[in-house]
Design goal:
Helix content is 81%, strand content 0%. It is mostly helical and 212 residues long. α3 crosses α7. The N and C termini lie far apart (65 Å).
């Protein structure tokens, strides 16, 4: 943490905004990037007067939403063929892909909004929204809203930390651990549903072969 603080403190203000934004964008591609801690420290640097809080927030907010929309576009462009004709067929059978599309048509806005607060799912929900063919007009609003809430809170926490930066970072890390536990529980549920659907699909395939 001290290294990040020193690194950001030594940069010119415009570069601080770019670095913070880049970290927030990369989280959509590499979920293990510690973007949250990075943004809190960026808010702390703003509190010291090295940069301004509002531009710091706008940078991480804009870059994060932009990165999410980029992976959404990739999923929309290449995802259906990958899962219907490419190696992705081993992950999602045709019926499962249909169910994914139906789920996003019904619950997509709520799922994207909620998923953006959950580690791991934060990077996945826009990709699969693209795979499911959800329209950009339904993807962008929940991304914008969730990112504004989350990154606004992180920048504010760092900005108001004062001499208690370590306490602010620790609080964010505790929050993320709780969210990670929720993510793991949800992942276990999704995996269970996926496995059940695969077994049913395999059983039906076997019945068809026996009948022929």
């Amino acid at each position: 943490m001290d290294g990040i603080l020193t690194f950001l403190g030594d940069l010119p203000a415009p570069l601080v905004y770019v670095v913070l934004g880049t970290g927030a964008a990369l989280e959509n591609v590499v979920p293990v990037v510690p973007a949250d801690t990075f943004v809190v420290i960026g808010g702390f640097v703003a509190g010291l007067g090295a940069v301004r809080a509002v531009p710091a927030f706008l940078s991480v907010w804009g870059f994060n939403v932009g990165g999410a929309m980029a992976v959404y576009a990739v999923g929309r462009r290449y995802g259906p063929r990958f899962f219907s004709e490419g190696p992705g067929r081993r992950l999602l059978a045709g019926e499962q892909l249909d169910r994914l599309e139906a789920f996003y048509r019904r619950w997509g806005v709520a799922a994207i909004f909620a998923g953006r607060f959950l580690p791991g799912f934060r990077a996945l929900v826009p990709v699969f929204a693209g795979v499911a063919g959800l329209a950009p007009s339904r993807v962008l609003p929940p991304l914008v809203a969730a990112s504004a809430i989350w990154y606004g809170a992180l920048v504010r926490a760092g900005y108001l930390a004062g001499d208690n930066l370590e306490a602010a970072v620790a609080a964010i890390e505790r929050t993320n651990r709780g969210l990670l536990a929720a993510s793991l529980a949800l992942a276990a549920l999704v995996l269970g549903l996926w496995w059940r659907a695969r077994r049913k699909g395999g059983a039906r395939g076997g019945e068809v072969r026996d009948a022929s």
